[in-house]
Amino acid sequence: MFECETMCGIEGVNPEWIYRFTLIVASNLQLDEELLVTATILLERACRLAHLVLTEANWQSVLLAAIIVAAKTHYDESVWLGDFVSRLRMYPLSAAFLHTVEMALLRALRYNVIVRPSSYYRYSAEIATLHDNFCPYARSMSCGLAYRACASKNAAWPAHRPVGVCVPCAD
User: Fold this and answer.
1) Percentages helix, strand, coil for the chain, rounded to the nearest 5?
2) What are the backbone angles phi and psi of residue 4, rounded to the nearest 5°?
3) Is the Cβ–Cβ distance between 81 and 120 less than 8 Å?
4) Using CA atoms, how far apart are residues 158 and 151, in angstroms rounded to an integer?
5) What is the pLDDT of residue 136?
6) What single-letter DSSP state applies at residue 78?
7) Are the CB atoms for 61 and 94 separated by under 8 Å?
């Protein structure tokens, strides 16, 4: 499902696009920040285990799959793919597509979705530092408020930028 290469990494993807996309998804789905930390851990684990490379063509799908798997392991209730489809209407998604990318990510993870507390706290501190660097004026805001604050900056949208991915937050 995902394009794999011999080394894991990011090719041609601006990390700020990833940050922005994550804020959009978190805001629309009302996700906990803890879930996003777990999704990041799962995403990096999949890159390491399956030698997955995030490219302009696949990064949104892979990230969304990591968020779905994290949601299913994080919340103590049912998580339905239809909820993702209905709340992310700005993207051309279907439950079948989300199921396909979710299963591909689970295979890349070798179904290892357990996150140790030590890993969680290490990643949480790193993400807080990155958040402060990208949006220093949004330090104490929740994801929804930070998204609205960052999205208010207007800038040109390059033609190659995927639909729905916002412009960088920091200048």
Assistant:
1) 60, 5, 35
2) -110, 150
3) no
4) 16
5) 55
6) -
7) no
Taking 70 as the pLDDT cut, the residues of the chain under it are 1-11, 131, 134-171
CA 4 to chain centre: 18
pLDDT of res. 134: 64
The two structure tokens encoding residue 18: 């990833």
Q: What is the Cα–Cα distance from 8 to 168, expressed in whole angstroms? A: 24
**Both tokens assigned to 117:** 């507390």
Whole-number pLDDT of residue 9: 58
Q: What are phi and psi of 108, to 5 degrees?
A: -60, -35
Which residue's structure tokens are 């919340």? 75
If you search the block for the tokens 């929740």, which residue do you land on? 142
Place of tokens 């507390």: 117
Q: Report the alpha-carbon distance of residue 42 to residue 82 in Å, rounded.
A: 22
Give, in order, the Cα–Cα distances in Å from 146 to each of 24, 46, 170. Answer: 10, 28, 12
Closest CA to 88 of 159, 163, 17: 163
